[in-house]
Specification:
The chain is of the alpha+beta class. It has 10 helices and 4 strands, in the order αβαββαβααααααα. It folds into 2 domains: 34-123, Alpha-Beta Plaits; 139-323, Multidrug efflux transporter AcrB transmembrane domain (Multidrug efflux transporter AcrB transmembrane fold).
Length: 339
Amino acid sequence: MRLADAGFHDLPANIPVVQNLLATQRAFPGGPAPAEVVVTGRDLSGPAVRDAVAALRERAATSAALREPVTATLLGHGHVLVVSVPLTGIGTGPTSNRALATLRDQVLPATLGRVSGIDYAVAGLTASNHDFSAQLDGSAPVVFVFVLGLAFLLLMVTFRSVTIPLMSIALNLLSIGAAYGVLTLVFQHGYLHGLLGFTPYGAVVPWLPLFMFVILFGLSMDYHVFILSRICELRSRGASTPAAITGGISASAGVVTSAAVIMVSVFSLFATLSVVAVSIYSNGMASAILIDATVVRGVLMPAAMALLGDRNWYQPRWLARLTGDRHGHHRAVPAAGHG
């Protein structure tokens, strides 16, 4: 999956404003927006700053990552200096990101960074997209660990088992992975774009994967716990593990199916909207819930629990002490004829 801002591709190409924008770009082609180096401090019109900007121009003339012309504009009655530095690439791809890194890590420290009494920061389209994606990448592991860890602890205490939480998390991650695959196939590679009425731009909106993970994990865990509760109720009444699984799935199938149909229908309606980001989100949610309610909960979950058998209810001693279940919440029931 490649993450990139949609820009004007967020709107369908058949509406007048986008058609006018495309026509303007064809008539007056230009390069991507340059990086904007915002400089603040004292004596911005002095010789030290002028020499640093001249050195920056020389670097741009000889660097493979930067382009000319480099322009400098004083704003705010001389309190702010904005230096525009064109970058290679299309503005949002890997080439532009490498050029941005060259500007930030090599060129600026060797030029403006040598002037005392000033501060600078790099803004612009490339910088904002890169920094937003970097912030998401840095936050994603924290979000994943928090959500998965909290789910594991709650399921472990609720069902007094360490096997059930691990299986539940694995199944939920499988559903989310399938949804990511659908997003990549349809919106990044452009399959079914004619049917859905959007123009693919070779990427997915950066904030969607993490946002979908949180929402999907909550939704799928909702009816997952509902099914597990029915199974555990039958097990606690003395049913064998296969009988509890069969009975729990049968008892909850109607409710789970109805909930899935409602959610898939609602998200499918949102998928008809013209904004590409909303369409990506809605299609991803609808396909994930459909896969989760049918393949994952209807096939993989009972199959996994049947293979695990009584290991589903494995409870170490420290967990029994934590939950106050000294005798074991789910005791194995001997088979008939072997008591």
